[in-house]
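Hi all, a correction to my earlier message: I attached the wrong file for Tyrosine-protein phosphatase domain-containing protein. Here's the right sequence:
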Amino acid sequence: MHRFQDVGCLDFQRVVINIGPVSYIHANYVATPLNPRRFICTQGSKKSAEYVPLSFDTSPLAFGDVTVTLRKREEFQFPFNTRVNVDVGYLEVKIKGEPPHHCTHYHWKDWPDRGVPEADLAPIYLLTKIQSTPSAHVKNLNPHAVELINSQAPLTEIRALLLNLRKQRNNSIQTEHQYLYVHQVLLLYLKKLKYLDDSVIPYLEQFTADYQAATKGF
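and the right structure:
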């Protein structure tokens, strides 16, 4: 049930499965100001592969009266150069006696366990793309392996936001490197949108140099 033995599943905000003989899954709802169940954070792709077909080589997965089929798969296109690799899978979920449900599955393939990818605007763009989906078509968003936060929050509130996130999803942001990664990505985002005064750019460049030195090899 658990991918990592040191990452338990909190009862608070826990997702309960109402279909099938087992109600437990290692997953929690994560709230936003407008939706108390906007996100579902669950385990990484290796565990998720038991529930979600990640390739056409996999037969449709059946769980009692529920069948999950991969209908289409393509590479996610970023509008800038990045080393990040994200696959987009289009899933069809059928429940006996119910109309089919269609789900878009974004799979960040090369996020390192307990590490960090190269810091750029990829997570901001990906989250923005997902959030732009009309809420009428999206009941829950399901990021596995990567926990995301509101990218427009003031930097002084990052610590409070991450503490609140960890209250909903146990041990989100597992390492110091991931904590630094969040800061680095948000600083790049603020610089891109010209929210930072020119006078702080030298400090940003120094932070970036220190960040790269601290996370090298992770």
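Sorry for the mix-up. Helices lie at 45-48, 122-131, 158-168, 176-192, 201-215.
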